[in-house]
Write a structure and sequence with these properties.
97 residues; alpha+beta; 2 helices; globular
């Protein structure tokens, strides 16, 4: 559990500092490009403590993108890469409501 929390804190800090250097635009434009050009789909998301939404997109080819959408609706690409691999069983299933 501590490892997951540390990762979340690191991603939050990274997302906040990286947005200063990020490419930003309307979320829909990024979704069109990620889906069309890279075949990337959402594989995870979370709420950043500043109210932004962090989304992780990945493709079967291994490309990945981290997109942060601010409360004002503007999205910014904060990181991209290659060689994405899904690691099954890392997070425990959430209990049913």
């Amino acid at each position: 559990m501590l490892r997951i929390m540390a990762t979340a804190i690191a991603l939050t800090a990274f997302a906040n500092t990286a947005m200063a250097q990020a490419v930003c635009n309307e979320r829909g434009k990024f979704l069109e490009q990620l889906s069309g050009s890279y075949a990337e789909n959402t594989v995870g998301l979370g709420l950043v403590n500043n109210g932004s939404v962090l989304e992780l997109f990945a493709s079967k080819k291994g490309t990945w993108t981290i997109l942060v959408t601010k409360p004002n609706g503007i999205s910014c690409v904060v990181a991209t890469g290659d060689s994405w691999e899904e690691v099954p069983g890392i997070m425990a299933k959430r209990p049913s409501a």
